[in-house]
Write a structure and sequence with these properties.
- The longest helix is centred in the first third of the chain and has 18 residues.
- The protein is built from 32 helices and 38 strands.
- The strands form eight sheets. Strands 25-24-23-26-22-27-28-29-30-31-32 form an eleven-stranded mixed sheet, with helices on both faces. A six-stranded mixed sheet has the order 33-34-38-35-36-37, sandwiched between helices. It has a five-stranded antiparallel sheet with strand order 19-14-13-20-21.
- Helix 27 packs parallel to helix 28.
């Protein structure tokens, strides 16, 4: 039994609308051993290792259902068991995850196991540990080799996993704030491996790190960390604080204690979490020891008056007290029977206690500090305490060391409430915790005394949201309300665009429109991330990482996300929802890769974009597969885009008050027209959009219609949409590799990134619609990772439309032979009736483009499909025509002249080579040398 493949989905995917992990699991010989055959011993052992599995309902949807399923005659297979184990492991680490599903992957014994995760590394580790646990429970004869190391111990591995998970999980306070943000519908992003979290998107974002917020003053944090200065400030305001002195040596500490008066407290100058604090010190020796303990955590040590009373934490948010808690140090209560060590074990059996921050309470430990406390009470771990005797194991009441918390918010005296609020305001904190000692919190400090020990920046929330006793308090909500007052914005509008072809151009058009409307757009595309029109990151950025990169940028106020197939398959979407989702088309491309073998499967994948749309799904009504997606969206509106003004379904949709964008024929050409709520809105003549080449580039007409429909659905004004479309052109600067035109040579060059039959066919159609007085020449290729039939389809898309076909391959061979792709396409062209003399194989991209440019004559049209876009565009723009020295190699226009023979082609090459200004080495080269010739099967 082994994991063949693993994918971690950060957002909506084919499997769920939330983060999940997918395992491809091969059971091997264990396919023949379902749990029913493994027997009760295996099931009982698993129940003993993970008792929480008893609460899993599985298909029975009730506690105990999973074990019931395992114990049936046939039982269930181990892939399904691993799913539940991975979920339960995260549960015992404190995560609330429940979703999972397991299905056969097709091959015998191979299963797709999907389970929800809360934190990436923890989720991966849960799958690995779960697999090891299951292997360890198998009979030795069935156990896969090397699956369980010698000496492996389940209990140790479980506890180590819990600690591992907690080191990477959000802390209790950060988790509480994130949950409160989710309750308000505020999106969030984790920015590092600790507790730095962004709430909201773009320019509306706020950040938190634990309970430090974007609004927390740095000066206030510094003051709170300076316990001496805090004491002075509070004392100057008449607030109750103990006397204290700052010391740097053991001798100074003893002298300070004598001046202040015993008993005293020693604590680090800038410590936290109760570390290094010693209390109720009554002798010089105890003070010296306390100084040493504090000195381990800070250079300077504070000696202060010991105040009698219970330890209280008073939490103040935005100037108001929101919770008060009485804290009790970790302890046990004697019963006259059990030893202290046994009492600790009994207390740790409380299901509320766990490792670290795993649960509401933390386990008690008989460590060195506990032994010291026992020694002070003349006790040992094997001592039997008297019945009712409270035995302290810690000197401080922190929950992280086993302390308990009792909520007293409802009974705190108003004077004590006001005192805490004044103290936090005096330091300047937006969120602050006051440590206050009082014998009775219900009585005023003015009457019975008490004092403020500390004012804490970044106070923990665990004791308030999950007290050991009393009412839990929602202390995170006031923080979120402070950061995002009622009516404040926290989301930026998000548009996501997918499709086989046209999505990059459409995304760029839409981003340009939003910029014309006054927005600062963040844009992700196949060539990089753009912030306000400037590329900040280069590369294919159409996956979830780039989406989060844009939404984390504090400058943007709208996001346009090109969403590609690859990113959806690898890691899902980078956002849980979008305002507007658009699907342009679903055509054959990348089929046969990563489990997507059919157009229907590809359609299901791209459908995710509209499934997560909340406001509007924009769909191509002219494509049946896209049209069917209307039944899978929960968006408030559906906007159909059609180039067919007689589309019956769209007509009915419009008559019902629906939204649509359609072409209407008029005297002056074709008008892009919007319909919404019965309204008829003429938008723009297509020939006025530069990117459409006066309306001839029909694919860009459709792209412009999508950009307009999505902009309209985002609430952008019509004038801004018109202005954006009229000022967006297809230059390399605005849309690299998307129908770029270069007119500076005697011939025209069309430059495009098309790499599938649909895209190539659209460009071939455009080449036919353009007025050309000379020849039409095409430089053709296809990605090496496509199926042979896809490469053939690309060649068929141009066959019969050009006078000369130059077949090349990309730089990245993708496991193909160096000339395999161009030979496949050349054979496809011959099969389509293209003469051998009109087909040229030049494998190298640069040499193929150079050959085409040298062949160009006045009036010709060169359609160049390129892969290395920047390099190839520079090659085109910097090309210097050689005049009469240019190669005159031509397969002449098929309708006018017969094709040249090989002999004539070779003679023209030789004539050109005789010209001293012409370097043949830069023209054509393959493994056989320099030669321009039709393809052969030799």
């Amino acid at each position: 039994m082994r994991i063949l493949d693993r994918s971690v989905y950060v957002g909506p995917s084919l499997y769920a609308r939330f983060p999940v992990i997918r395992l491809e699991l091969d059971l091997g010989a264990l396919e023949a051993w379902p749990t029913g055959k493994l027997g009760a011993q295996f099931v009982d052992a698993l129940a003993g290792a993970l008792p929480g599995l008893a609460q899993h309902g599985c298909s029975y949807r009730e506690p105990g259902g999973f074990f019931r399923r395992m114990r049936e005659d046939e039982g269930t297979w181990l892939g399904h068991v691993l799913e539940h184990v991975a979920i339960e492991l995260q549960n015992i680490a404190g995560e609330e995850v429940t979703f999972g599903k397991t299905r056969s992957a097709g091959a015998p014994g191979v299963y797709t196991v999907v389970y929800e995760y809360a934190q990436r590394d923890e989720g991966i580790a849960a799958g690995d540990l779960g697999l090891r646990l299951l292997c360890s429970l198998l009979p030795v004869s069935l156990r896969p080799a090397d699956s369980v190391p010698d000496g492996w111990n389940w209990q140790e591995a479980r506890d180590e996993f819990i600690r591992f998970a907690q080191r990477r999980a959000l802390g209790p306070s950060t988790s509480a704030l994130v949950r409160a943000a989710e309750h308000r519908g505020i999106p969030w992003l984790r920015l590092n491996d600790q507790s730095l979290v962004q709430l909201g998107h773009g320019k509306y974002q706020q950040r938190i790190q634990a309970t430090v917020t974007s609004s927390t003053s740095h000066i206030a944090v510094e003051l709170a960390s300076d316990k001496e200065e805090t004491n002075k400030i509070l004392a100057s305001l008449g607030l109750p604080v103990p006397k204290q002195e700052l010391v740097q040596s053991e001798a100074q500490a003893v002298r300070a204690a004598k001046r202040i008066g015993f008993p005293v407290v020693t604590k680090p100058y800038n410590g936290n979490h109760g570390r290094g604090i010693s209390i109720r010190l009554t002798t010089d020796e105890e003070v010296a020891h306390g100084y040493t303990a504090a000195r381990e955590h800070a250079r300077s040590v504070i000696v202060e008056t010991f105040l009698e009373g219970d330890d209280h934490r008073l939490l103040v948010v935005n100037g108001g007290l929101v919770a008060a808690t009485r804290r009790t140090p970790g302890h046990v209560v004697g019963d006259g029977v059990h030893t202290i060590a046994q009492l600790v074990d009994i207390v740790n059996q409380d299901p509320r206690r766990g490792v670290g921050h795993e649960k509401v309470l933390t386990r008690l430990e008989l460590d060195a500090q506990a032994q010291k406390m026992l020694g002070q009470a003349n006790l040992k771990s094997d001592s039997v305490a008297e019945n009712g005797q409270v035995v302290l194991l810690r000197s401080t009441a922190n929950l992280s060391t086993g302390g308990t918390a009792t909520d007293v918010t409802d009974v705190i005296h108003p004077d004590n409430r006001e005192m805490a609020e004044r103290a936090v305001r005096a330091i300047g904190l937006d969120v602050g915790g006051v440590d206050f000692l009082s014998k009775d919190i219900t009585e005023s400090y003015r009457t019975i005394g008490g004092g403020i020990c500390e004012v804490n920046a970044a106070p923990g929330f665990r004791m308030h949201v999950a007290p050991s006793e009393g009412t839990p308090r929602d202390v995170a909500a006031p923080v979120i309300d402070m950061l995002f007052p009622a009516g404040a914005s926290f989301r930026v509008p998000i548009a996501a665009i997918t499709g086989t072809n046209g999505k990059t151009t459409t995304a760029r058009m839409l981003a340009h429109i939003t910029k014309m409307a006054g927005y600062t757009p963040g844009l992700t595309t196949t060539d990089g991330v753009y912030i306000d029109g400037q590329r900040t990151v280069q590369g294919d950025m159409t996956g979830p990482v780039s989406a989060r990169m844009v939404l984390a940028d504090p400058q943007i106020d709208i996001a346009v996300l090109e969403t590609a197939r690859g990113g959806l398959l690898r890691a899902g979407m980078g956002v849980n929802e979008v305002n507007v989702g658009g699907v342009l088309n679903v055509q054959a491309d990348h089929l046969g890769l990563k489990g997507i073998d059919t157009l229907e499967q590809l359609s299901e994948l791209k459908r995710i974009v509209v499934e997560v749309a909340t406001d509007c799904a924009v769909l191509n009504a002219d494509e049946p597969l896209v049209l069917k997606m209307a039944g899978h969206t929960q968006a408030k509106n559906i906007c159909y885009v059609t180039m067919n003004p007689h589309h019956a379904l769209v007509r009915e949709h419009i008559r019902a008050g629906g939204r649509a964008c359609a072409l209407e024929a008029g005297v002056n050409g074709q008008m892009m027209t919007l319909y919404d709520r019965g309204g008829h809105i003429p938008l723009l003549w297509t020939h006025l959009i530069p990117a459409t080449l006066e309306g001839r580039a029909t694919h860009n007409v459709q792209n412009a219609m999508f950009a307009a429909a999505m902009a309209f659905s985002l609430g952008i004004k019509l004038d801004a949409i018109r202005q954006g479309l009229r000022t967006f052109d297809s230059t390399f600067f605005q849309a690299p590799g998307r129908m770029n035109v270069f007119n500076e040579h005697p011939f025209k060059v069309l430059f495009d990134y098309g790499h599938n039959a649909h895209a190539v066919g659209m460009m071939a159609d455009l080449a036919q619609r353009l007025d050309v007085t000379g020849r039409r020449i095409v430089v053709l290729a296809g990605p090496g990772d496509r199926r042979d039939e896809d490469l053939v389809a690309i060649a068929q898309a141009v066959a019969g439309r050009f006078d000369l076909y130059i077949c090349r391959r990309d730089d990245n061979l993708r496991n193909r032979a160096s000339d395999e792709v161009p030979r496949i396409q050349a054979r496809a062209l011959r099969a389509a009736g293209i003469a051998d003399s009109a087909i040229v194989i030049i494998p190298d991209e640069q040499e193929a483009i150079d050959a085409a440019l040298r062949m160009g004559e006045s009036g010709d049209l060169l359609l160049i499909f390129a892969d290395a876009l920047v390099r190839s565009w520079k090659q085109i723009t910097k090309f210097k025509p050689l005049g009469t020295a240019a190669v005159k190699v031509v397969a002449p226009p098929l309708s006018r002249r017969p094709p040249l023979s090989d002999a004539k082609i070779d003679s023209r090459i030789e004539a050109a080579a005789a010209n001293p200004e012409f370097n043949l080495d830069g023209l054509i080269r393959d493994e056989r040398g320099v030669r321009l010739a039709p393809e052969s099967d030799d």
